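Batch queue: ligand-bound targets. Current item pairs a single chain with adenosine-5'-triphosphate. No template structures supplied; prediction is de novo from sequence plus SMILES. Inputs echoed for audit trail.
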Amino acid sequence: MDPSPVQYSSVKHTVIHPNFLHTNSTSHRWAFSAIAELIDNASDDAQATQFCIDLQQFEVTGEDGTSKEVDTLVFMDNGTGMNPLQLHKMLGFGHSDKSSNARAIGRFGNGFKAGSMRLGQDALVLTKCTTSQSAGFLSQTFLKATGCEDILVPMATWDLEGRRLGAGQADLKQSLDAIMRYSIFQACSSQLY
Ligand SMILES: Nc1ncnc2c1ncn2[C@@H]1O[C@H](COP(=O)(O)OP(=O)(O)OP(=O)(O)O)[C@@H](O)[C@H]1O
Ligand SMILES: [Mg+2]
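Prediction returned. Tokens below.
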């Protein structure tokens, strides 16, 4: 029998501690190389013809009830976007389907994580493709506040008319709760439900 992952399916998985998000980001000595990771990702998408960077301020309420203005870097491209499976891979480590594309800059499946976590504590990805629109949240704030020992990535998906997909899935309510509580969109979070 050829070797396959199935024959080792009971072997323990490794666990990546949330502190690794910061550790991994220290490969960027300065912010501009981190920004370059996000520009590279947009430019790898042959369909993307526009890329914008904006600085916005959002008012958020902390766990102690006080509100504050948070500086937020917004990166936007008009490429093909991602379906939920692709978004889940993006938020993980080492997944890259670019190796067959000689023109692509990306190779290692790590740039987004290293770059975004160098620029801020939290990254909320909003993406739309031909079949769905999704939110995914890579958040050191959420992981620290909840004492997670592993990296959880809250995700939610809607169809193009705004109907929530996978409503029966156990993780959805918890994912929306995490996004509502810890992301900049807490002010308008009731619209997510
Ligand atoms: N702006 C984007 N639009 C669409 N898909 C994206 C975008 N940014 C990232 N992705 C997807 O997420 C994956 C992971 O991105 P990431 O930057 O972490 O790794 P990579 O670009 O594949 O390799 P590298 O580590 O060399 O940057 C990409 O391979 C791509 O499939
Ligand atoms: Mg990349």
